[in-house]
Amino acid sequence: MGLASQSMRVGFLRLLALLLAVALVSTAILVGSAEYFARDQAKRQMAETARALSRVLDGDFARHEALLRALSQSPSVAAHDWEAVDAQARASLRTPDAWIVVGDRNGRQVVNTKLPRGAKLPVGGDPDWIWPILDRGETHLCNLTHGLIERDIICVDVPVIENGRAAYYMSVIMRPHALQPLFERQRLPDDWYGSIIDSKATLVWRSREPTKFVGRAATDDVRRAFAAADEGVIASVSLDGVRTYAAYSRSPVSRWTFLVAAPREQLDAGIWSTLILAAIVVTLLMLVGGIVAYRWGRRASRGVEAVARSAKALGAREAFAPPATRIAELDAIGAALAEADQNLRERDQALAALNASLSQRVEDALAERERVLAQLHEAQKLETLGRLTGGVAHDFNNLLAPVMGALDLLQLRHGTDPKSGRLISAALASTERAKTLVVRLLAFARRQSLQPRPVDLGALVLGMSDLLQRSLGSTIEVKIETPEAPAVALVDPNQLELALLNLAINARDAMPEGGPLLFRVVDETEDFVRIEVIDGGEGMDEATLTRAIEPFFTTKEQGRGTGLGLSMVDGLAAQSGGSFTLSSRVGAGTIATLRFPRAELPEASFVPAEAIPEPIEPGRVLLVDDEEMVRRGSAELLEGLGYQTVQASSGAEALRKIAEGPAFDLLISDYLMPGMNGATLIAEVRKMAPKLPVVLVTGYAAPDLDLPGISILAKPFRQRDLAISITEARNLAAGL
């Protein structure tokens, strides 16, 4: 029995139906593959964005850490000069969303740049578990917490180490809003949003409705994902109830997480809409195809083949032109494929550009971190040099003290002999010059506090001429112009000498071929006197001049400058009540101008060098010094004044001699001694003899002591200086 016959039209309709069905399935697969590929591309883009931003977040925290580390090494911190530290901190960090705080272990703040200068600083207890971290010298990054001034804060803490433990903490405290620039620079797509989550899975900031969700805990599915891996992409529901795809990356240093999310509806909608459209198109084609099947059969088959070729080219990511089948539906599919291809190429280009931008930002952040670390290294080298210089100056004072004392005694005993008197006077003059040199060394080492007094600026600059010429070399011609009358200002002369030397060295570096360097003292107004340092060097452009006084800014090559010289000069002028300005043009040299408040020289009362005050009540003196040569020389000076001297080489020995008796009429003690320093000794002695006159001898500046009624005597000293200091000590003790 043969096969039943069928009309060609029916068979063709069946064939047409089958072909249309195949076309529908093929189109659905290809479109679905393209959409799924696009969605995967978007997910990969989200993951790359989250990873890059988590590294940028670490870099942001690292910059704050480097700033704090540099500031903690400041000489002002070591000297507990909190006003200077406050000024440095305000100059280093100028943003309304972040501020610097310094506090001690009792929760007492000593610096808070958030508050106006002079404002009462808040007191709050820091968690005990933070201090062991700081004692180890480590950096602490706090999660989102409540602050003393702001409700929600984050912070970066570094220690200030003293005696092997953290005596203070130094923090950059930020509002969560300080993280907003990360999102603004990233420019996420409109429907995407980013979130920053701390190590306890608490939301710190969000690019969309941030204030509504700050402080909220992450959802359970997000926390489970964080516990499982440091990076990934998950399907989740956001805090505002939106179904999303979320890519997250935990930063390797801070362990904070950056999360980028997009609505699932945005990424999934294209697949279903395309499939539904394809089904509708195929259904319409089946209805119309039954009428024009024969006429359009061949054209339709060719059109399907053309569309298939375009779809395959799209799948293979090869270039193709939309097929012209003259069948609207197939042409529409071809156009859709071409549009999909164009969209994919644009997304690839955008992703490549984004990756390049993120890579550049990460490189810039790392370069900035390296620059800050290099500046910190230079500051540490300067601090080390200062400590070394201070130690040498202290030891030199101890060596110079017995020499000056012995020469003073020899002048008293043999000064009447003309030849001996000339030799001794010359030796004493040399010791006085050595004493001045030590003062300058201590000023360089920052071991002298600011001690302003009326100074004739013209005489000071003239007195520095030899030092300047030796320091600058033969290629620099030092010129000095001073007014006829004394130009007197209120300033610390030692610090001013150091500032002028700094300016001179900068001017020398700006004149590699040499040239004139003019120091001009001008009696400016009724209120101020100024010093101008004028060089004929290379000069500075506007950008360099604007930043020249900034701490750590330098145009010198690495290793030749710290960027602190001009900021130190500016700090001296400001602390002295004056000002420091720079004017310069490229190729026209530079003028540095220092202004100081005018003062009047006190009326000098002539006291002959040989006029030594007689002791008011000669008696027993307890002399304490760990240096035997210094102690023996001081004892000779005291015995020359008529005192009976009992010597002790340490604080402990001195306390034993006081306890054994008989009573002493005067205590003279060195300040810097091993075991027990002079300040501790005096505090113990005051418990046993509250009204005992005390002279504290030091090779540094006057220490900051909370002990009233003490006369401070600087090394080295002569017999007359010792006698005056004893008289002062007795007068002070009488007032206790």
Written account of the structure:
This protein is α+β, with helices and mostly antiparallel strands and 736 residues long. It has 20 helices and 22 strands. A five-stranded antiparallel β-sheet has the order 2-1-5-4-3. Strand 4 (153-162) and strand 5 form a beta hairpin. The longest helix is centred in the middle third of the chain and has 87 residues, at 328-414. The radius of gyration is 41 Å and the shape is elongated. Mean pLDDT is 78; it is low at 5-9, 444-448 and 604-612.
What is the element layout, followed by pairings?
Blueprint: H1 8-72, H2 75-78, H3 82-92, E1 98-104, E2 109-112, H4 130-135, E3 140-145, E4 153-162, E5 165-174, H5 180-186, E6 193-197, E7 203-206, H6 210-213, H7 220-228, E8 231-237, E9 243-250, E10 257-263, H8 264-289, H9 293-315, H10 328-414, H11 418-444, E11 453-456, H12 457-463, H13 465-472, E12 476-481, E13 488-491, H14 493-509, E14 515-522, E15 528-535, H15 542-547, H16 565-575, E16 579-584, E17 590-597, E18 620-624, H17 628-640, E19 644-648, H18 651-660, E20 666-670, H19 678-688, E21 694-698, E22 710-714, H20 719-734
Parallel strand pairs: 12-14, 18-19, 18-20, 20-21, 21-22
Antiparallel strand pairs: 1-2, 1-5, 3-4, 4-5, 6-7, 6-10, 8-9, 9-10, 11-13, 14-15, 15-17, 16-17
